[in-house]
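A.,

Following up on our hallway conversation. Structure tokens first:
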């Protein structure tokens, strides 16, 4: 070993440990996010899925994931919309995290392309700031999908709302329990079986 040979010091090992730990942590978070999306799709009826749950893991492939996110997010949105409609939960204003997911997907693809440009100190600051902003959109999308998955997991399947009722109290027509008739003072349910005769309507004299 020559006199000018460099030996790795403590600072070098600390830097390597930091870089390895950073990428390992980022990979773990990415896997946890994809598992959340995977679990959410598992709770969607197969007939309502626009994307098979197993295809979610394609997003773990480096570089390809920037393109696959543009496919995955709209299909996850469509799957959830189909499931909400099947369960009669659908609300016109619900976007199922679509805007958050697409903003992150398009933004990361643009930044990935921009990183091919010659690096300068000012440009690196712009890219780093953009990554931080997109990280907020990613976390927001993750939280939204996790909340939707929890709702799918805690809700009863359609038509099973009366599963815990005793036979004598279970309606013979479960759909009749949800039908409502407009009334002058608001909404009132249709009479159920066993409720007795309907009240007599007033007669105009």
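Then the amino acids I'd put at each of the 205 positions:
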């Amino acid at each position: 070993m020559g006199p000018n040979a460099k030996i790795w010091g403590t600072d070098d090992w600390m830097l390597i440990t930091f870089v390895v730990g950073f990428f390992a942590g980022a990979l773990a978070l990415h896997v946890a996010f994809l598992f959340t999306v995977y679990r959410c799709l598992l709770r969607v009826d197969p007939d309502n899925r626009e994307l098979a749950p197993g295809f979610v893991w394609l997003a773990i492939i480096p570089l390809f994931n920037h393109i696959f996110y543009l496919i995955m997010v709209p299909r996850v949105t469509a799957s959830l919309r189909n499931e909400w409609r099947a369960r009669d939960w659908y609300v016109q204003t619900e976007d199922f995290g679509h805007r958050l997911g697409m903003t992150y997907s398009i933004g990361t693809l643009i930044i990935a392309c921009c990183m091919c440009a010659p690096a300068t100190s000012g440009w690196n600051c712009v890219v780093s700031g953009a990554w931080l902003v997109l990280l907020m959109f990613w976390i927001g999308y993750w939280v939204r999908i996790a909340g939707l998955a929890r709702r799918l997991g805690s809700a009863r399947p359609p038509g099973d709302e009366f599963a815990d009722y005793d036979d004598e109290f279970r309606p013979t027509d479960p759909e009749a329990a949800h039908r409502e008739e407009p009334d002058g003072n608001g909404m009132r349910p249709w009479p159920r079986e066993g409720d007795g005769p309907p009240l007599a309507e007033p007669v105009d004299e």
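The beta strands are 180-183, 186-189. Curious whether your intuition agrees with the design.

B.
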